Amino acid sequence: MALTKNERRLRIKNRIRKVVSGTEARPRLAVYRSNKEIYAQIVDDVTGNTISSASSRDKDISAAKATKTEVAKLVGKAIAEKAMKAGIETIAFDRGGYLYHGRVKSLAEGAREAGLKF
Question: What GO terms in the biological process aspect are recorded for it (predicted)?
């Protein structure tokens, strides 16, 4: 029987997570994309703590009338600014099983523009 889209994505996500792991020196930037929103969080997998997070549901971002791709770029910039305040400059990017294309790529580019290195 064929896999559903979500089952396929979860298999890819697990394959990625075997390799990509966040440490205190280089935490992981995890991305979750729903049909309407996009979420990003910086995670230290050693301690299991979320250092910071941003999403398209934040008040300043949701107020912007823009396309979903443009909103994803704003989320990337917001998470990068929060990371810089927390003293994080380099991260490991976890695309969460999604293709590096469209909104996920836009979020990554926004984070890079704001100063994160990955």
Answer: translation
DSSP H or E stretch at residue 39: strand 38-44
C-alpha 18 chain-centroid distance:
17
Give, as one character, the DSSP assignment of residue 89. -
Cβ atoms 13, 97 nearer than 8 A: yes
The reply to whether 118 falls in a domain is no
Q: What is the pTM of this model?
A: 0.92
Residue listed under structure tokens 């896999």:
3
1 pLDDT above the threshold of 90: no
pLDDT digits (tens, 9 = 90+) for 60-79: 999 988 999 999 999 999 99
Number of independent structural domains in the chain? 1
Per the structure, the complete domain to which residue 56 belongs is given by 5-113
